[in-house]
Write a structure and sequence with these properties.
- This protein has one domain.
- Helices cover 71% and strands 1% of the residues.
- The chain contains 14 helices and 2 strands, in the order αααααααααββααααα.
Length: 334
């Protein structure tokens, strides 16, 4: 199975489409207006399964890290800086100026938002701290997994679950405490980061080969829908997030689809979206986060049909992200 840089972009492109649709179909809590489709409980429940996008991105953190030439803190610092640059451009240029004053928590709250500890200004910024966490721990975890791949993947994953149990026991109300909740999120996703790293180091995906047939691609599409249906009913048990199983399956299916079914136009579109997926992650939140949607939601509410809103949000998020990336590259050249 081909898991090239090009296919990495395709996977991220699919994931960002899933994410935007997930939030557009997030229910009435994401809007200040009443939209008829938000009352379709079965549809909203199924679309909630698109949260698999998070598992895909988390898996890709570990998978991508495995191919870094130097797994040291300089690599980590460089990539943390790259992510923070994208997030801070969205935060300071677009979110803060449009922020609802009633939700403005002052300087301390701003600092917490800057590093994803608080999400009051951007509901999806939690990924920032998770990424920083991954870049800090992976120089250590990666070396251990390199020595005994399967053993240390299991051991480190088990320790992550132990940490979750400890947090739950010591701080039962951790969900209301930003720092504890952030640590909970980091430990919850660490096993999937490790699985992504393991798959890359052992070339597990590349070892899988299916006949290149349209029928195989169709089966892969059906499997994705089956996984999404399963996730909409069984997302996890207590501290065990089933995305450690669901996300790799969906990634494998995406690779299979594009391997068996060329679709050069769709491949190109997904690669382009994947290239700008980090910016699109933060930009699309402007239209839906409570602190900023008072200003930005009007730009996506072109209809009361959530499918049209979703498609337009993807287009608009891409356009804004393209502009921000151009602005960032021009500033870097100066």
């Amino acid at each position: 199975m081909n898991f090239s840089r090009e296919m990495t972009a395709v996977i991220k492109g699919c994931a960002i489409v899933f994410m935007i649709l997930l939030h557009v179909f997030g229910g009435s809590g994401w809007y200040d207006v009443d939209l008829p489709m938000n009352h379709n409980e079965e549809l909203i429940r199924f679309m909630g399964s698109l949260q698999i996008c998070v598992g895909i991105f988390v898996f890709m953190i570990g998978y991508g890290y495995a191919f870094s030439k130097k797994k040291d803190f300089l690599y980590s610092f460089t990539h943390i800086k790259k992510l923070l640059t994208a997030f801070w451009m969205v935060l300071f240029l677009l979110a803060v100026p449009a922020c609802d004053e009633s939700m403005w928590g002052g300087g301390k709250e701003l600092i917490l938002n800057m590093f994803g500890v608080s999400e009051s200004l951007c509901w999806v910024s939690w990924f920032v701290f998770l990424y920083i966490w991954a870049m800090i721990v992976m120089p250590f975890f990666g070396r251990l997994v390199d020595r005994r791949p399967y053993l240390y993947t299991v051991v480190l994953s088990a320790l992550s679950y132990v940490a979750l149990i400890v947090i739950h026991g010591l701080v039962p109300e951790f969900g209301t405490k930003p720092l504890w909740h952030t640590l909970w999120v980091c430990f919850m996703w660490t096993p999937l980061i490790l699985i992504g790293y393991l798959c890359a180091r052992k070339r597990l995906v590349e070892k899988i080969n299916f006949p290149k047939s349209l029928w195989v691609a169709i089966v892969a599409i059906l499997i994705i829908f089956a996984v999404l249906f399963a996730k909409s009913r069984f997302a996890g048990i207590n501290i065990l997030n089933f995305d450690i199983l669901y996300a790799p399956i969906v990634i494998l299916c995406i690779l299979t689809i594009f391997s068996c079914w060329e679709m050069p136009w769709l491949r190109k579109v997904m690669m382009e979206l994947g290239d700008k997926s980090v910016y699109m992650w933060f930009v699309h939140a402007l239209f839906l986060s409570a602190a900023t949607r008072g200003v930005y939601a009007r730009f996506i509410l072109i209809s009361d049909n959530l499918w049209l809103i979703g498609l337009w949000t993807i287009v608009l998020s891409y356009a804004v992200s393209w502009g921000l990336m151009r602005l960032g590259s021009e500033e870097t050249r100066k």
